[in-house]
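dumping this here before i forget
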Amino acid sequence: MDLYQQARKAGETQVVVYSPDAPALKAVYDVFSQRFPGIDVQAQLLTGSQLVTRIDEEFVSGKHTADLLDVPGDEIWRSYTHGYLVPYDPPTAQGLSNKGFQLVGPDHTWVTPYAKLNGILYNADLVKSSQAPKSYVALLQPQWRGKVVITDPRQIGATSGLLIELVHQGLVPGDFISRFRAQNPVIVPHVPQVAQLVGGGEYPLAIPYGVQSVIQDRKQGAHEGLVLSLKEGAEIAHGPVGLLKGAPHPHAAELLEAWMLAPEGQKALAAAGFYGSMPNSPSPAGFPSLSNVKVIPEPQPDEYDDILNAGITRVAQLWGA
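structure:
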């Protein structure tokens, strides 16, 4: 409440967030705005090179729009090394541990309120749960040729990251990416288009797809299933949040960052399909807890970029970039 009063006193009525997960996080931000009347969250969907370019342009011009970044590990690390982030240690971050993944950034330049759990999405009207692929290698079977929807693999993003991780961890054959390319997957720009094509019944499968997106789609009437018990493991992707230098609404941004780690924020994240990072946080209803799921080890933020850069050129070239 002290942070809320500071934001109100400063005349701050909004928080601007850049995030690849903006659509799914909307439900979380709505709870925040109800809890703290007069402060709205303006979330902008930005991914890959779009996100990088927008942030760089704001720092070159000195005209800042964004307050917070809610981004993957590689982008939060890049923003840290470029000096874009302001140290902030939320009072609600007590108990946040760096075990397994660096949840708290160096000099407290970011915190990680949640993680996403991604698997293989299937349209339940087109594919029975017993027939859905139980591994990523199974996507190489002839019946899935031309029937798997992915986001653009020619830039660093959800699909390219998954493909590179699978090979880097030695979980699939070394030629998996080229063989998957030969399956002619269907490329779309962003996750909302995946929902339209698979949830709408035009295609049966998509990778990678998260619990949070399935929950959002089901609210819109989509009949979808998500395979998380995969031979290679489900993909886990943490969501670091960092406060930007020059943020137009710094007090409101601190409030949102702190609230996401509080019990109320962790509950709202779970309701939207995210897995809270704080100890004893609830899991999304109807989905397994993280302790009961085999996951693909996620690279640390400081190594993620090197791993992605080592593989993205090859992945992009396979798709003609």
